[in-house]
Amino acid sequence: MKKKLLLLSTLFAFATISPTQIHADSDDIDQLEQQVKSDFRKYLSSLQELYDKKGEDHFKPGIPIPFDNDMIITVESIETDIPDEFYENDVTGTMVKVTVTVDNQSSEKRKITAHDFSMYDGDRLSSELLAKDYFIAEIEPGMKAEGTMYYNVKNLGNITVILGDTKWSAKL
Question: pTM of the entire structure?
């Protein structure tokens, strides 16, 4: 993930130079270099704000994260929910609802399911996916899908949703 952010940051630095600025004299080039460095520092600072303050790669809900397979995944929300009669016998702790948006920016159909995600509760214990109504989507190229997943969580606190090596966290 950090390699991807470094690559994006480098591309941003080059993108700020317009073709007319390339044919400048040495004073203009020095000024332009200082401006690019300043813009680059501001951009890196704004990227750092995306990270949770725990020093790990935990993102807050609502932050779209690009993945290597040309998918952009956003955990839109992590919140408690009240089980209806469909779930009332399955929930022994607290029901937590996770809403996601998946944007397939590849040129191929992609499949994603709730089983690709995992959740850990406030005591870092794995939470049970309530599989009666889980998210599954085959997303055509250039299209998006939205879905909801429900988990049986034993201990509230800092709830973490994980997909691959990317984590989203919310305090419940």
Answer: 0.68
